[in-house]
Amino acid sequence: MKNRKYIILPTCLILSLTVTTGCFDFFGFDESYDPPLIINQPPVISGLNNVFLSPGFGKYEIDFANYVSDQEGEIINYQVTNSNESVIDISLDNTVLTISEVGAGSSDITVTATDGREGHDISATFAVIIASVLGAEDFTGNASVLIDFNGLGTGSVVDNPVPNFTFEGLTFEHDGTDFGSITLENNDHLMITHNVSETYIWSEYNLGGNQDFTGKKLRFDYSHFTAPTLSGAHWEDDPTAADIQLYFVDETWGASGGQKQISSLNLEYAENWQTVEILLSDFISLWGLPADPSTVGYIGIEVWGGEQGDPISFRIDNIGIVD
Q1: Tell me: domain 143-322, CATH 2.60.120.430, correct?
Q2: Is 0.85 surpassed by the pTM of this model?
Q3: 44-130 is classed in which CATH architecture?
Q4: Phi and psi for 282 in degrees, rounded to 5?
Q5: Helix, strand or coil for residue 274?
Q6: Distance (Å, whole) CA 219 – CA 13
Q7: Is 65 helix (H, G, I), strand (E, B) or coil?
Q8: Contact status, residue 301 vs residue 192, Cβ threshold 8 Å
Q9: C-alpha dist (Å) from residue 203 to 76, 116, 186, 192, 278
């Protein structure tokens, strides 16, 4: 008979596939351990930079939810302070800070965020800078008609009337609370803001009779142009439309009038003054007929659309008829 050799295994492996603490002890293992210590982290503020705004912006919003994060996803509470109330007013609604224009200058805003735990208050400070905007350089070319607004005052055109320059609208009050404003800025250029949908305003310059501008251009300088999506539709065709229209008409508003909408010019925001020149012969008739620049009695600007939080807003200078 052959001798048999046996290997003696621990009872736990012979009797069951279940691993027991005793088996680990037998092989020298120990499954006992302490879980890692989790420390709650305070919120983090990042990417909150200085804000540069142009006079006439009205209101500007910042959502702190875009700049503050919390590792644990806890609810964040905010407090804000404003260093210069002569420049801006501020208000906070949940995570959204609304900045309201008061005057030119700079103010520091400090935001403090916390998840409510002791020692978890974090703060960041950024500046809101509202810089005065000077008008465009004076036009030195050959002009048949030119309005440069120099020396005409500062403030509403109601309080500072421009000679031969009038404005009217569908629904507005002269204090500007309904439609926006048309104001002379820094005694050297015009600022137009419109912030009510389904209404319009226009401003026009009376040339004192018809003039022949055949072969000439309408030109203007603009800057700080902002607007909602311009529709390319007139308010008479779509009351909810938003656009700006330059036009000329004869002294009786007859069939010779021409128009050119800003939406067709693809103008964009520009901090520096930009010059636009358009041949009067390229204008489209206001009445579906060829525009006739040989009898021009008025040149004007019409604005319609916009919202309180998304206004049409632009500056214009040196508007006129040039060679």
Answers
A1: yes
A2: no
A3: Sandwich (2.60)
A4: -90, -5
A5: strand
A6: 95
A7: helix
A8: yes
A9: 48, 54, 19, 10, 19
